[in-house]
UniProtKB/TrEMBL annotation:
<dbReference type="GO" id="GO:0080043">
    <property type="term" value="F:quercetin 3-O-glucosyltransferase activity"/>
</dbReference>
<dbReference type="GO" id="GO:0080044">
    <property type="term" value="F:quercetin 7-O-glucosyltransferase activity"/>
</dbReference>
<comment type="similarity">
    <text>Belongs to the UDP-glycosyltransferase family.</text>
</comment>
<keyword id="KW-0328">Glycosyltransferase</keyword>
<keyword id="KW-0808">Transferase</keyword>
<dbReference type="InterPro" id="IPR002213">
    <property type="entry name" value="UDP_glucos_trans"/>
</dbReference>
<protein>
    <submittedName>
        <fullName>UDP-glucuronosyl/UDP-glucosyltransferase</fullName>
    </submittedName>
</protein>
<dbReference type="Pfam" id="PF00201">
    <property type="entry name" value="UDPGT"/>
</dbReference>
């Protein structure tokens, strides 16, 4: 049984439809646990690709639909292409599945009768709004971005067209007024890999969000109050900021990868706040030379390290990973531990972890803040660039590598983060931010109240 769940149903059912990416499945399943604990029954519709493990959540109903992806397409690293294909291939199966669910709920009688009150799905599902609308079902949008990125990223196509093709070197560190606190070089990195295909996708996402019944974010006023007020004006729909969703039900059980738990006993043997944890989430891939620079940087610094290297996907070319000389791995293991996939939330909570070298996916960023772990930012794509700027420039709870994946730069950043001077100031600021965010999810806190409003809102449909 999900921890903290209530036995008593409130007679209402919520349909959830996560995008099949780890960074989207985690918050959606967390939201499912929260809603279930408040008496809602849960149905999760999911694609065949990256299907969540239903057996981990016996109290939820899981329904699989076809997504139309070929075997080759499931292996693409192009997220925009993947999302476009998923939206195309899932449309008709999703419509059929939702229609059947509503029809069978209508035909139920007696005490078992439940009302389906709404659909909650990711902002990246642009197919769902017209379908929900045609079936008279309110739809709420969940986004796994921070508020500021979500409200501003619709301007990216315009930035690509207007200004960033011929940027002078002297301008690269300038702030982007339309997208603070990004710098122009960050925008260059974001749009570098994006094509025109994205433009129409973003237009649709904006349109379908505005047409929805509300927006749910895993953030809180304490993290970005200004953007929140602006987002309320932009979208003109109710906005709920429920805080870091993982904090209500700690411990991740929605992992698509096999979790290597051996890192916890290894951490138990390390000194307090001595370990640098390294992970770049579920999507980022690095090159062979980048792997080697990080390896040398970690081996040369004074701290023990725990490094997540997703076998077969973290480094371009599986064969190369298999070909790393065992001697080199043994040499790395003298100073640290490498795992395929870690129980990240438990790792960040562990007393031995003192820093996080991260790609700044939004989940990783808020999980780190929630546990008060200072960061070294190495963002690669998309919202990660903005999250990293918040960490280094706004909250000032981490250092930024500015994209330099070089052994001496990494080694120096780790030394600075753990130092008694600069590192201490960062740790103190992180402690304050952690307390503020922690308070927001406690009763009377801003995120806690927003969650209550969300529950009341859904119940009112
Ligand atoms: C994606 C995008 O890349 C990111 O930019 C966006 O903000 C969210 O969606 P991802 O790259 O996977 O996500 O990163 P992140 O948002 O950090 O999510 C990763 C999740 O996997 C976190 O919840 C983290 O706790 C979990 N994780 C990661 C593990 O449980 N174990 C690991 O070893 C690594």
């Amino acid at each position: 049984m999900e921890k903290g769940s209530m036995d008593k149903s409130n007679g209402l059912r919520v349909i959830l439809f996560p995008l099949p990416l780890q960074g989207c499945i985690n918050p959606m399943i967390q939201l499912a646990k929260i809603l279930h604990s408040r008496g809602f029954s849960i149905t999760v519709i999911h694609t065949r690709f990256n299907a969540p493990k239903a057996s981990n959540h016996p109290l939820f109903t899981f329904l699989q639909i076809e997504d139309g992806l070929s075997e080759t397409e499931t292996r693409t690293h192009d997220v925009t292409l993947l999302l476009t294909l998923l939206n195309r291939g899932s449309e008709s199966p999703f419509r059929d599945c939702l229609t059947k669910l509503l029809q069978s709920a209508d035909s139920e009688t007696g005490e078992e009768k439940q009302r389906i009150c709404c659909l909650i799905d990711d902002s990246g599902w642009i197919l769902t709004q017209p379908i929900a609308q045609s079936l008279n079902l309110p739809r709420l949008v969940l986004t796994n971005y921070n508020v500021s990125f979500f409200r501003n990223h619709f301007v990216l196509p315009q930035l690509r067209r207007e200004m960033y093709r011929h940027l002078q070197d002297s301008e690269k560190d300038d702030l982007v007024q339309e997208f603070l606190p990004l710098r122009k070089k960050d925008v260059l990195q974001i749009i570098d890999k994006e094509t025109e295909v994205l433009d129409s996708y973003l237009d649709m996402m904006l349109e379908t969000t505005k047409a929805s019944s509300g927006l749910i974010l895993m953030s809180c006023e304490e993290l970005d109050q200004d953007s929140l007020s602006q987002a309320r004006e932009d979208f003109q729909v109710p906005i709920f900021t429920i805080g870091p969703s993982h904090c209500y039900f700690p411990g991740s059980s929605s992992s698509l990868f096999t979790v290597d738990e051996t890192c916890i006993p290894w951490l138990d043997k390390q000194e307090d706040k001595s370990v640098i944890y390294v992970s770049f989430g579920s999507i980022v891939t690095i090159s062979e030379s980048e792997f080697m620079e990080i390896a040398w940087g970690l081996r040369n610094c004074d701290q023990p390290f725990l490094w997540v290297v997703r076998v077969g996907s973290a480094v371009h070319g599986t064969e190369w990973m298999d070909a790393i000389p065992k001697k080199f791995i043994d040499w790395l293991h003298e100073k640290g531990k490498i795992v395929n996939w870690a129980p990240q939330q438990d790792v960040l909570k562990h007393r031995a972890v003192g820093g996080f070298l991260t790609h700044n996916g939004w989940n990783s960023t808020v999980e780190s803040v929630f546990e008060g772990v200072p960061m070294i930012c190495l963002p690669f794509v998309w919202d990660q660039l903005l999250n990293a700027r918040f960490v280094s420039d706004v909250w000032m709870v981490g250092l930024h590598l500015e994209g330099r994946i070089q052994r001496n730069v990494i080694e120096e950043a780790i030394r600075r983060l753990f130092s008694e001077t600069e590192g201490k100031a960062i740790r103190e600021r992180m402690e304050i931010l952690k307390e503020n965010v922690g308070r927001s999810v406690k009763p009377k806190g801003s995120a806690y109240r927003s969650l209550q409003h969300l529950i009341d809102y859904i119940t009112s449909f």
